[in-house]
Design brief:
It is a multi-pass membrane protein. Helix 12 crosses helix 17. With 569 residues, the chain is α/β, with parallel strands linked by helices. The strands form four sheets. Strands 3-2-4-5-6-7 form a six-stranded parallel sheet, with helices on both faces. A five-stranded parallel sheet has the order 9-8-10-11-12, sandwiched between helices. Strands 15-14-16-17-18 form a five-stranded parallel sheet, sandwiched between helices. It contains 21 helices and 19 strands. The chain has four domains: 138 residues, Rossmann fold; 132 residues, Response regulator (Rossmann fold); 143 residues, Rossmann fold; 108 residues, Four Helix Bundle (Hemerythrin (Met), subunit A).
Length: 569
Amino acid sequence: MEYALALEKDAPSPNPFKKINNLKGLRCLIVDDIQLNGELAKQHLESLGVECVFEQHSSNVITLLENAVTGKKPFDISVIDYLMPHINGDILAKTIKTTESIRDTVLIMLTSSTRTSYTNCFKDAGFNGYLTKPLKFGELEEMVSFVWDNIMEGNNNIFITVDDFPSRKTGSLGDSALHFKKPSILLAEDNRVNQGLAIEILETAGCIVDVVTNGKQAVSRTNETAFDLILMDCMMPEMDGFEASRTITEKNNSDAPIIALTGNATKDDRERCLESGMSDYLTKPIRKNELLRTIAKWLPDFVDTECHQEKIMFSNYKVLLVEDNRINAAMAEEMLNDLGLLVTIAKNGVEAIEAVQKIKFDLIFMDCMMPIMGGIEATQEIRKLEQNNTIKYCPIVALTANAMASDKKACLDGGIDDFIAKPLKKNVLKSMLGKFLKPTIIKVHKVEEETVKNSFDPDVLKSYKHIMGDKFEHSIKHFIEDFNIMFSKLDSAYRNKNINEIHYIAHTIKSTSATIGAMDLSDIALRLEKETKIQIEKEQDKVILPEHIIDHLKLAFDSTEQHLQKVIH
């Protein structure tokens, strides 16, 4: 049992920040004498729909800005480095602000200095905000969005720093307070400084950390020990992180999520990580909030909710849920409603396209596999409507039961912004929502709490029971009967070495058990599904059947059946 009170806002000045709005259609000039820095910033903003031009020579900037005005395609924003060979950023800004035709250009400073004494200098030069290097792309997006929003509302004198961001002031997702129930984490990192920083963050958050310094050691260690998650540096001696990840996922049969630690964040790097079997990636230097948030995303069951005294809500945002499965849709809708969201449901891609032309949504959750029109095709059609300015840009998150690198790549290539695994888990869902929407933080006073300590996700099981109503007990009995039949078929398929049949049964068990919250059973079935899919795709002459996984699957079902019998009696 719990009750909640909204936190009081700081007084007297109002918070100038709102949710991140659409950046599509803005024109931005990026000025930096270091080509890599400029190209990375350009690539990231372009992925958000911003039209960018990169200029390496500061002496050319005034001419570029003036020519853009003459050509009736003026730049809305310019992101300018501070120290450059020809003209420093502050001098360049003063020139821009005293040149009539280009003085309205919004300016953001990039600087390697963290000294707050420079703030007034940048503000006096005409900047509306500044960011420190190395550039963090989430901060760049947030800065451009919030500065532009305020300029559009007439706040021309606004000056914003990273410390003004809501995430710094309120800890928007409570990342710094995240604590875990002793997950076992392998850290593969050869740099001692990065090692020390990561170990301190992880151990303080309750993680158990094992460290190796190259890819070969990582492969060997995962063959000996089952880890809950792996943090993998991409560039290491003897064997790099890409090869190590590929070996761990394909040969060691590890289903632990692998998070890449990389100094680069280009689209090619991202795709290379996914193709190597990695699940996600973080850019270095390691930052505490991003690291803990990512771990919470992939290990939601290890998040120690007892440590949280805040509740995250996303009140009154409009969400489109595109899902053809009635039960999945109802369960997802209930979770989203519990988080304060206003949900509209579409059953297929055609209905989704119709809905976005009638309602301005803040976020779309899109199932990938649907009749009439699938999620990726629907996403491509929605992006065409945005390009034609028929509708405004809206982020789209794929709902997928698959976790293979090829499936993730297909989502990204199709115009989808991110993806989340089905069935939805509340902790993962909240983390995903926090990427695109600004939450409301409310203080939670826990009076009494029941903790379900078993292999079930209590939120999913509760939702399923609520949806089924009087039919709950009957459906659970059917579930047990159907699974006994499936295991009989699985035994037969195993004896006959029918890898395709085993793959199909594993997929069915994974999806069905997850629907009622039997997560242990679902996770083991997922491992079996992945293993058989790899063998099917490779068309191996000799079928190697993972007998130990099948044994684990049977044990997990026995435990599941015992728990379900207790639930219905």
